[in-house]
Design a protein that fits this description.
Elements (H helix, E strand, L loop, with lengths): L2 E7 L13 E6 L2 E5 L5 H8 L7 E3 L5 H4 L2 H10 L6 E5 L4 H8 L10 E5 L5 E5 L2 E7 L7 E7 L8 H6 L6 H7 L4 E2 L5 E2 L13 E4 L7 H6 L5 E5 L7 H7 L4 H11 L3 E5 L10 H10 L3 E3 L6 E3 L8
Parallel strand pairs: 3-4, 4-5, 5-6, 12-13, 13-14, 14-15
Antiparallel strand pairs: 1-2, 1-16, 2-3, 7-8, 8-9, 9-12, 10-11
Amino acid sequence: MSLRVTFLGTGGAVPTTERAPSALFVNREGDRLLFDCGEGTQRGMMRHGTGFGIDHLFVSHLHGDHVLGIPGLVQTLGFNDRTEPLTIHCPPGTGDDLRDLVHAVGHDPAFRIRIEEVSPGEVALDADGYEVRAFETVHRTVSQGYVLEEDDRPGRFDRPKAEELGVPVGPKFGRLHAGEPVEAEDGSVVEPDQVVGPPRPGRKLVYTADTRPREGTVEAAADADLLVHDATFADDMADRARDTAHSTGREAGSVAERAGAKRLALVHISSRYAADASPIRREAREAFDGECLLPDDGDLIEVPFPDVEG
């Protein structure tokens, strides 16, 4: 079951020729989710092959570099004869402003747009096999990040043990794996816990958007398979990071380390590092022992299950 993350926009407030403003595309087994939609997101979708068929858009906050791509994307979806609704999830108190933004160019979408406010701690999307919930972040306006977390999976099925207990090969194997007791060939009852191991965790993806490092993010990102964290500046601009309510690479690395995340992706890179952003990653690596990534626009990451190597 695939969980693929495409970085459509990895830059900060000012775009560069290499980095567009914030946008993260997630394909979870065919469910297509977009986190933030900065200017040029639809062009990134075309260039990097994600397609336009998103089901849900999750907005972290209403700064322009995270939302100015929405009117153009909505208009393009209409030009492509979209008929199914699009749900936009946003922080509390921002729904009216988002509605105004959608209609800012005098364009009435040909399909329904649902704008749903969600507060930190609440589930924005309760889907088949996973949920997306909001968590509080600290920025210069009302802001939040999002956690995509999958349900636990059934434990591993012990086929030799099932055969030893007299369960015939066939449909009863599947019923046992699904948690249903079955009758063996000798008439005895075999319970699932006799042949199925403990539940295995699903995957966890965390997107912070713009934020200062905070303990709440450490808690939200606990044991994350991939943490996508604000890393706007390197240590040379730590004061600027505090003044603008962003994080440095080192601070992002510290959050990932304390959360026990497996991989960290550094995004929202300031345009002042357009020539060389390597200091941000180097300093993050000094604080984080896991895999540390500085993705470029268009990079795609496959998130494996926790119990699968690679």
